[in-house]
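Example for reference:
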Amino acid sequence: MVMPHETPEGLVIDCHCHVGRNLLAEELIEMMDAAGVGKAVVFVTPFLWGLLGQADYHDTNDYIADVQREHPDRLIGFACVNPHLAPGRELERCVKELGLRGVKIHPENHCFAVDSLIGGEIMEAVRALQKETGLRIPILSHGMTTIGAMPDQFGRLAGRYPDVSIIIAHAAGFQNLYFPSFEPLTEHDNLFVDTAMTTVDDLHLIGMAAKVGIRKVLFGSDHFARGQRNLYGNFQYVLERAFPDPAERRLVMGGNIARILAMPA
């Protein structure tokens, strides 16, 4: 089956894809073509972020910029940074020189709590770059699988930076994860969740959308390997069951991330 391309606010957009040596950008685009996915947000696989001698991730961010430049109508590049390694300077380079559109962070891989970013280089750089460039620069963070990335911690971060959109990866995707509270997700308009890793069950998605609102749920597949050729088909099945209303499904499948990125309708 093929996903519908058009939504009320643009194409079907996958907000969570990893490209690199395990899944080349061209291979991802082939999967997108087969499934009717129009655009994808891409960044590198976390544990392959830096090559030897490139601990600041210049090399992999350059790769993402290259594939975005080669496929401007299909790929939306996000920079990856480590908060322990001068991220402000790298973010400025990625946005102003490379043209990347957002930021991917990984608290589990880099051993930090998301609320520890308050007042730090990443958030201050994003805020300054948004003001300087007029762009909206969302942050997509791994979440829900480690103590440093729970909803209350995201809530504190979102409350301090209401002008920055923050997406909790996997928060609408992993089943049976412990939510201390849903309140942070309902209290902050700039806090969102993606569906990464939703492959078996629509009940979690239905419950999440009911609690936080349909405009906060973003379709993200978490593609990261060339063997995932059936992943989009699995998502189509789950999303159609979870959101039988076409208007709601279209928001999840592209409209919401298009709004966050301020993309043309």
Q: What stands out?
A: The chain has one domain: 6-260. The chain has a mean pLDDT of 88. Residues 6-260 form a domain with the TIM Barrel fold (CATH 3.20.20.140).
